Every structure is written in structure tokens, then in C-alpha cells.
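Budget justification note: compute hours in this period were largely spent on complex prediction jobs such as the one shown. Inputs:
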Amino acid sequence: MTPPTDHSVIIEHLTKRYGDHTVVDDLSFSVAPGRVTGFLGPNGSGKSTTMKMMLDLASADRGRATIGGQRYRDLDDPARTVGAMIESDAFHPGRSGRNHLRVLADATGIPHHRVDEVLEEVGLADAARRNAGAYSLGMRQRLGLAGALLGEPPVLILDEPGNGLDPEGIRTLRDRLRAQAANGGTVFVSSHLLDEVEHIADDVVVINKGRLVTQGSLAELQQAASLVRTIDPGRLAVVLEQAGAATETHGPDSLIVREMPIDEIGDRAFTAGFAIHELSPRAGSLEELFLTWTTTQSTDQEVTQP
Amino acid sequence: MNTTRLIRSELRKLTTTKMPWAFFAVLAVLAGINAFAVVSGTDMDGSKAFIATGADQQSLVAFAANALAIAGLFGAIAAAREYGHHTVVPTFLAEPRRPRAVFAQFTAIGLGGGVLGLVGAGLTVSAVAFALPTTEYGFLMSAGDVIRVLAASTFAGAAGAVLGAGIGTLVRNVGGAVTGVVLTLLIAPPLVVQLASGTASWMPSVLANVVSGVLDDVGQLAAIAAIAAWALVPAAIGLLAVQRRDVD
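Corresponding output:
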């Protein structure tokens, strides 16, 4: 009996430089099977370059990316192992959507009946014979997704798959990715649609300026903040920051404190003689957290991995 | 087996856009121009001596030099548009061992160029044959000469397409690739000959006419080998470049 294949994606010390500019800087993280992992970062933070290195479309100056323990180029059957969508407009505008997929099917030995199945699955069956150049942005995204799903791969690596999709398309995408993860598949999705990531992702990997900012369970990260209400939040902030916490002012008498357990916050406030009027766990929205991670948190600090 | 699949995929790429039809239209126009020349053209003295013998007619229909240039443009556009439209991304995802993917692409483009060369020569021979009855001369070429013209054009078309594909892969921009082919096949050779007259026999159009049997500047095998070299050098450079470069 063949042992079950591990489809974890492991990134180890990945580094990419263009001239003097380091685009991806000693990046390490992992993407687990059975979960949807969101890949977040501001524009130009190195997300697409990282994904290209994962897929051997770009070479790494240092480090490596493996899928199930192998580099992409060493996979026995890459198209049936990894479904990828990197460029949303990677098609010839004068070729029909159906023929675009048939080209891919020919290259990978996938039977042509699968082309029609996947067109139906992404909702493009009616437009299959139209030239892809006449497709809307959302239809192009669906075509890209169809290409990624063609080989029924256990691993999906998708760069901004939700761009331009209408609400129905977003829902279809969400359901498809959730189903993929529920069946044990590995799903790694970059997106700047934070609301969407919040709905879809189990885990997140956040990078900024090519460096890892945080990685972990989204639910845990969202709970990893505490609200403290006190008379002098500014002075308390100094005390807590000296002890390694990250703080931000939240109204005239409140602080949001991260990277410090709630018990420790209470103990340190008590030791420093602060009267605490409220100390409670605070779930932050992903947008709030994202802005905190990418604007106020130094990437030189120790990486948060709850 | 995998390479066969890749070649089939590349052939489907070539046959599922309108680009080949544009080239077939150019070939039809060129054949029409040849037919018009037979019907209406004359030599300086007003005679039709340019079609008076089988050798003259063979010179007129020898399409290999045209095939080299036209298929060169075909190959350049076919390869460069892969990068312009990013369709090379799914290709390299399907076959991350890039030399194999590019070999399949060059093979398919070479086959396409060969077909263009064959069709171009076939249309030209047919057009001239249909136009000759309007003159005092009949069709004087032997079957062997016709086959040689067709074979030479097919070979030159395949070689030209591979040359163009190499340049297209290197440049990755359709405009730049077309310019590169025009420079390589049409503009640079006469300049090189001006600088070194001994090289004239080794220029692509001369070699193509040698293979077609209308010139004998060099031997047949030498001409075939030299045309192959003209095609394979840019193809090899393109292949090396692809291996080293990131995909944008």
C-alpha cells in the first residue's frame, strides 16, 4: 500500500535579489495540507516573487521551496500535483478559452473531457468558444482558475484569484478552496482582499518588504490582542513596550496590547502601580491587524508564531 | 512521450489563432504576384526570356529564400508572443524542465515553418503553371525539379522558423523579434558581404537558392549544413537564455 503523500509546502530561507534590491529576504514559512493559507503583504512586498520561486519560474539566490519535499521542477507530474495561477492574463487573446485549456491539457496529458468539466465548474461553459481577449476581468480570473484546477491537483497556489470576481464568483471560489482544504488539499492564496481572506483562510502568512512579519492561525492571531483601559495609557504603554509588547492607543483612556499574554499585562500594570479599569481579550479585524503588522511592526522584531 | 505531448500542445497553440492564416494569405499574394509577372512581365528587351527554359522557370519559382524570411517572421512572432501574452507561464508550469519545453516549442514552430515553405512553393509553382498558358511557353520544369523546389522551400521554411523562434525567445518582444529577423536575414547579409566579399556564398538567400538548384556557389550538403547552422545558432542562444532567466 502506498503511504499517503505529504503535500506540505515548505519555504526555507528564500532570498531573491535584483541588483542591490532584496525583494525577498531570508523568508521561511510553511503551508499545511488541509488548510487554506492566506498570503498577505502590501503591494511590492515580494508575494508574487515568492510564489514564482515556489514554482521555479524565478530562481532563488538562496534558500529553497519544496512541495511534498521536492522542488517543483523535480515533481514527477507537476500539473497534477500543483495547480497554479500566477498571471491572470496568461492566455492569447485570439484563442478561445476552451482551446487555451486544451493546449494545457495536451501539454500535461490530461484528457480533453476534463476541459469541459472544469469550464462548467468555474462557470465559463457558455463562453468557452469565445476568444479569451473578449473576456471580462472576472472571466479571465475564472479561466486562470480553470487552468489551475484542470489536473485536479492536491496543491493550489493562487496569486490574487479573487481580483475582479463578482460576488457569485467570489462565493464559488471560496467554496471551491474550502472544499479543496476539507479534502486534505493544500491551498495557498495571496490576496489584498482582506475581507475575503478573513472569510476563507485558516492560516495567514504576512510579509512586508520581503521579510516574514507573522505566520499562524488567523483565529489565534486575531485573538492575540488585549484591550487595557486605564487613567494614563501613555505611561502604561511605555512600561509594556519596555517588556516587549506592541501597543497602540485606542481612544483617550485605552490601549491595545499585542505580543504579551493578558495575565502578564495585568501583572506588570499591577507591579507598576496602575489602576486597571478594564483588561479584556480583543479580537481584531484582519484589516486592523494587517495595518498593524505592515505599518507599525518592525520586521526586525522576533517573528510572531502563536 | 512527454515531449510528444508538449509538441502536440505547441502545435495546438499555432493552429488555434489566426496568425497562420495571415501568413497563408501572404503566400497567396506572393503566388499571385508571380502569376501576374508571368502574364504581364517582360525582360528589358520586351521578350519573355525569363520563362523561356526550365531553368528560368525554376529560378522564378524557387521559393526557398522567401520561405526562409517569411517563416523567420512566423517563428519570431510565434515565440515572442508567448512572452508578451505570458502564455509561457502555463507552459513552464506544465513542463518546468525548460529545455524540454523550449525544444518542443521550436520543433512545432519548425514544423509550422516547413508547412509554410511547402505551401508557399506549392502555390507559386501552381500559379506560374496556370499563368504560363497565357504565354508562348509551356511548363518546362521536370517533376524532379518541382520536387526539389518544394523540398528546398520546406527545409528553408523550417530552418527560418527555428531561426526566428530563437530570436523571438531571446528578445521576448514581437516588434523586437521581427526587427531581429529582418536584420539577420535581410539587412545584415549585404553589409557583411560588403565588408568581406568572400562570405557572399554563405548568406542565407544564396544558400537557399543553392538548395533549390538555381545556384551552385557551394555544394548542396554544405548549403544545407550552413542553413541549419543559421537556424540552430540563434535557437541555441535562445535556449540558453531561457534556462538562465526568470519568467516575468
